[in-house]
Amino acid sequence: MTEARVSEVRAFNRFYTKVIGVLQAGMHHLPYSLTEGRVLFEVAHADSIGTGELRALLDLDAGYLSRILARFDGDGLIVRERSAADARKHVVRLSPAGRKAFETLDQASNEDIERLLAGLPEDARERLVTGMRAIRDVLDPPAGPESCLIRPLRDGDLSWVVHRHGVLYAREYGWGRDFELLVARIVAAFDPSRDTAWIAEVGGRPAGSVFYMRKDDTTGQLRLLLVEPSARGLGLGRRLVDECVRHARADGCERLVLWTRDCLTSARRVYEAAGFRLDSQEKGMENGIELNEEMWSLDLAATS
Fold it and tell me: Is the entire prediction scored with pTM above 0.70?
């Protein structure tokens, strides 16, 4: 944990509380705070909800929630009644006046966000929404497995592949800009008339890649296999390699080759499981780091 990271998070918190109006006495010209607005939101969307469940959902102090509900009761916004399932417990629901207050607050919130987004260019809107989604994913990851798919390339994917290779391999292995330039040259040589590539998506976001590039009449090459750290363990590497192997066979290749390095142990396991075998190995260097370059191959005729 670095002081700079702590300071950056605190600076963001100060900034965003101002953006969403936490420091104001009321929200959207209504006499309710952000917390009170959130209580209204949860009651509205639950139709009726137990006070204990509401407290746990919002992680609120019992006394604080009780005061909020007492205010809502006094303003005629809620109806409190005993639970039909357990007479010792109470449930709350919105009254007609409460429903009207919620709808006014909800509409005002939507209009505020629409104004915020309208003042930004399209690329900035996408960056903003993507960043917000990333914060949610990190601090509150989905409870269940996210949807995964392997799809063909779309516009913008090639630059994503270069960027993520540069970032991840620098971070995880200390490889420098020369490696990123190498990836850029490989991508620049991609010819859609003879080559194919796939992107793995998790939860609708790019999480991996693999390229099939034709070398000659009988040989194809698997290149640029990548799986994001957040998506590892989902079997995407094997699925990407299998997709490449299937395509190479359908493309009439007799042999599929690949180049890798001995430090990429997870990728090597995937290649071996798919039937590739190590053909040769030689000493190499990347950004001053010694490593072993490896060539692997798969005899497609023998595995068809």
Answer: no
